[in-house]
Amino acid sequence: MHNSSVNPLEQEKLERSGAPSRGRFFFELMFAFLITRLPYISVPFKWLESYFHELSHGLASLLTGGSVSHIQLFPNGAGLCFTQGGWPIAIGFSGYFGAALWGYLIFILATWPKGIRVSFAFLGSAVVLTTLLWGRDLLTISILACLAVLFLLPLKLNNNRFMDSGLRVMALMIMLNALASPTVLLGLSGEGDASMLASQTWIPAWIWVFVWLVISALMIFLCWRRVDQAALKR
């Protein structure tokens, strides 16, 4: 007689899996979408996308031989990264691309149950380090302090499952904001990363916007693939 029950070892593996079920993923995605559309409540999460956007500009500058003077973050979710040297095309492209990629990487970290506290500590420490290196004005430092608290405060919790879900939702909000933000550039003339890249490459700004939209959508799809593949193994 065939026994379809899951043995204790397999059950333990399932319980330790950090990937949510398909249904939970869609719930978290819809919840993240709702939060990004709510006035006031969405503001700190817009700062998250802006932070990783400007951080990506800074890292691209450093990786291509440039330097970073400082970054500025604003209450409306806008930001600036002041760089010198480096490869302008890589620096300009990296902002929206980097924010979407960071969102995906954070989502992957949120599927690592044993390391969830390490993940929160790493992200919080990264924000603190950014503040020390590149924070200059009081407003930017205040926003970065809020983001550091957003990552470090959950370490007070004892429920790892809640932390997993919270980090996944934050990752999805970063990707959703990275998906929405480039569309604003379509209404700007001669401003923003897309216009800068157009002047550097002669590729129209709308094409750069389209590429960023595709990348952000791809990152969300890859999150779904991670969830779907985990579900197939159960």
3D architecture notes:
With 234 residues, this protein is mainly α. 69% of the residues lie in helices and 6% in strands. It contains 9 helices and 2 strands; from the N terminus they run H-H-H-E-E-H-H-H-H-H-H. Strands 1-2 form a two-stranded antiparallel ribbon. Strand 1 and strand 2 (79-84) form a beta hairpin. Helix 3 (43-63) crosses helix 4 (88-109), helix 3 (43-63) packs across helix 7 (160-180) and helix 5 packs antiparallel against helix 6. The longest helix has 28 residues, at 205-232. Residues 1-15 have low confidence and may be disordered.
Measured by DSSP, the beta-strand proportion falls in 5-15%
Instruction: Round the mean pLDDT to the nearest integer and report it.
Output: 89
Helix and strand element order: HHHEEHHHHHH
Helix content: 55-70%
What best-fitting shape do the alpha-carbon axes yield? globular
Helix segment tally: 9
Give me the secondary-structure category. mainly alpha
* Stretches with pLDDT under 50, minimum 5 residues: 1-15
Strand elements, count: 2
Write the layout of secondary structure elements.
Blueprint: H1 8-16, H2 22-37, H3 43-63, E1 67-73, E2 79-84, H4 88-109, H5 116-134, H6 138-152, H7 160-180, H8 192-201, H9 205-232
Antiparallel strand pairs: 1-2
Keywords:
single chain, 234 residues, mainly alpha, two-stranded antiparallel ribbon
